[in-house]
Predict the structure.
Amino acid sequence: MNLKEKIIEKLLFFCSLVTVLTTLGIIGVLLVQSFHFFSKVSLFDFLTDTEWTPLFFRKRYGILPLLSGTLLTTLIAMLVAIPLGLTIAIYLSEYAHKTVRNIIKPLLEVLAAVPTVVYGYFALQFVTPFLQHFFPGNTLAGFNALSPGIVIGIMILPLISSLSEDALYAVPKSLREGAFALGSTKFQTSWKVVFPAAFSGISVSVILAISRAIGETMIVAIAAGQQPRLTFNPMVPIETMTTYIVQVSMGDVPHDSIEYRTIFAVGITLFVITFILNNISFWLKKRYQEVYK
Amino acid sequence: MKGKKFRKRLESIRNIRKHELQDKAFEYLGLFCTLLGVLVLATLLLDVLIDGLGRINWDFLFTGTSRKAAWAGIYTAWVGTLWIMVLTSLIAFPLGIGAGLYLEEYGTRGRLSNFIEINIANLAGVPSIIYGLLGLELFARAFALGNSVLTGALTLSLLILPIIIVSTREALKSVPYTIREASYGLGATKWQTIWFQVLPASISGIITGAILSISRAIGETAPLLVVGALAYISFTPKGPMDSFTVLPILIFDWISRPQPGFATNAAAAIIILLFITFLMNGIAVFFRHRAQKKIKW
């Protein structure tokens, strides 16, 4: 009997160890392949060269065009999701009737359950043609950063609105009552008392959303094009880091060639950026929990 | 003197008016933004339905891929999705629930379980395409599994593991400690307590998380593209080592084709994919409801 208990505990321990092995696997795979890559291409060129053409005859390995593509779509997504998400969060938490909140919140969360390839279709087939009405004379290309950026913003909207609403809702009622007693309106109470009190919880949601937007693949792979370009013009085709990985994966690049290894060099860049963002949000969350206990 | 007081009062009334107006304006703005979110969701669903509903028929569901849009169907894709669903469940559920049990019931709040906890939080934030790179190097190449269903299922299992672990732990946390103490008091061992008391009490919550995670897995495209799933497959997989395609990959392939017929096909396939996704989410909501209702401690 005792032996059985011990074996079961060991088995369950092994299950939780799989998660650690996964992390080690990810870091190991990225490091080994990137190491081979950086033995051929200098890190300095990788970070400063302004062209990314590993699949062409004249090869250049500058990550900046891919980085700018990712930054641009993420920026557009955040410009859509942060104002919209925070307004919705405050409306649902401070203004809306409880029944409205209980209906609308799960409805918005449906947006998070939609597979990203569906959003890609929506961006390419609906949003881009729709936006082209507002930009006469073909100034908005068929593939561009604007439309997928907006659609990523819609995809991460429930992440910001739901998590921020949770944070706002958790602010003690006494704070609001104090503000009302001093003659504040709901608007003043929401923005000057409740919002600052929930600020760390809100920042966690925003950082997680940024991290999701940076790692988003299918929407940009479908609607943003595949042209690495160092630009912040949202009207022209670009390529993000994630799209490049997809592009190479779908082609016939021989294994262990330098072209093959570029996807791991891009992958490790992506991993490092999201890792830093996730840890900032993790740290904020911990601080936030301490404040409320 | 009197005039000054009067003016001051008038000003404060104006001030109050201004703030009341601001308050009302924001309320309408909030309502507008909220409805906008819902409207976008409705537009997305309508757009897909209008584009694709007319294309769905028996043949579309039960024929394989074709180079001609009018002949192409989704049979190989949804069978592949089914394969991925079953294999991923078989791999990820025991591992995820086991890990959740260990961390919640056995984990001794030591440095190791603290480390594992931070690690899981980090894994949950890793972009899915990075899991694809791991699957490509580890499963497809090092384990020599190639671009098989098994490689895809293993990769997706690692991807959804954090979701299952976190939801399992939440479900276990909702079981009060007194239940465990009563069981120990009757002489039950730790595993007997978990198996006969804790698990039955938390099973609805665990199932909710598991279904949500698998619904996430079947919508994933990027990691499967990276491990080498193909869009053009003429046979359905007969075993776990066969190559495969899934609905999202077929949709991606069809969207990328210039001929207009394929866009309609993509919309029709999206309707099927959304139907499966929403069905699973619906089942999960049902179980969550049951988990919240069934036992009142």
